[in-house]
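Deliverable D5.2: sample structural annotation.
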Amino acid sequence: MSARASHLDAKTTPRWHWQHLSTTLVEGDSRAARRTLWLLIVAAALLLGLYVALLGPTYAIAGALGLAAAYLVLRSTRWGFILLAAVIWILPFAAFPFKLGFTPTFLDAALLALFFVWLVRIATGQDRTFVFSPLGGLVLLFMALAMFTFVLGSTHARPTQQVLRQFIEVVISIALFFVSVNEIRTRQDVDWLTRVLIIGGGLCALIAIIFYVIPDVWTVRILDALARLKYPGGYGALRYIEDDPNNPMRAIGLAVDPNVLGGMMILAAGLTAPQFFSRSPLLPRFWTSVIFLVQVLALYLTYSRSALMGLGISLFILASLKYRRLLWLGLLGAVLLLLLPQTEAYVARLLAGLRGEDLATQMRFGEYKDALLLIGRYPWFGVGFSGTPDIDLYIGVSSAYLLMAEEMGLSGLLVFLTVLAGFFAFLWRTWRGGLAVGRDAVLLGLGGALAGALAAATLDHYLFNLTYPHMSSLLWLYIGLAVAAALVERAAPAAATQGDRSGKSNMVERDSGQEIADRGAAPEGFKELV
């Protein structure tokens, strides 16, 4: 039968269906095909015009991008991790311009989408094994204790809708640990997620620097435009040393708070630094060095002393364990900090903080005193997350560990410190057991970055503050990725080692792209650890 006859037969069919449309466009005569194509174009244009008219150009573009992102995320957990990293690094405080009983944030959407895809994979049998990991029990205990203290605290201070949403975000962020160790199962998985985190940290730093160097009025205009996404706007969003506009401005980027940006840069720069010296860098060395310098500059512009201390500790640990040249790099940075005229105010602020002379440090001392008073009254399980039972007490202190003790008591703090001790011990044993050539940079980078951020957390609260749930997500994403990387290396064939840990290794190189296992079965190394 000819194409013309087929087309006529299709026209006699009373039911319109897609086969008829495809036949008309592909096999029909050219006139009918053109007419149908133009009708489709006009219909699509009308629908697109109606869509833009109803939502406005800004929301229309955002909606299209959101639909595209949702499609990609639902296809693979890899896209879910990418979306989550993008939200954390670039738009951590963005919220949707509508309410569902509460105002959902971009972070909510990214976390829920990632968990949804992971659970679907488990339900459909695509992931047939669950990797609990050596830290799984402690992490579950910490989650359970957080929920218990939240419920206990709600008996004397009813949580607001916002506090409830933020607490749920923190709990989901802790559970992100399990998604990471179950979905990151090969060296390729570890490497691409590490690249995403390094590049995301570089973009976050670049945005912060651009916001810092452009005129204030431009920065305020951008923040005002983002007010549609619930970002703080106006000149009040800009931050200065001691909140005095006569003092130097502090970089905030899109992280809202300079100390939070500083903490993000510790995690970013600590992960990036070892890649420059790695035998098998994940990115070209030139771009690695550029990204690292941008991250360090952004951290410097925050004028955050705790962040500078944290980065110093991170780099010192990395230099002590393997990358000796980082000591020279750190020494050069210290000399420039002390000698350059542009850094005199920075050095003066550092010295004032060490001597306890400036206002911010004195306020910290007052917060520590009040926090110890609260912990003394409620030592075991704290007061919860929504308020205190006594009017002379308050929740809030510039230390993540004291804040945790306020909200979860000494029991919660002890469990968290046990998680950290187990984490670093697990990484240490894995590293001492021998790694393939080029694998040290990822494992040590994650461990060093976390060590620096956790050290800075003694003087800042953002790692366990409900106001900054994206920092909890970033913390547990790093911990989960580090444990997953260690599990992958432990499951890999043993490498013959003849060198020491002084920075020179005589290891037998393995195939860094080796697949440890497919998604359907766990490797032997994983089975031993589950």
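Annotation notes: The longest strand covers residues 239-240. Confidence is low (pLDDT under 50) at residues 1-16, 494-530.
The annotation will be released with the project's public dataset once the embargo ends.
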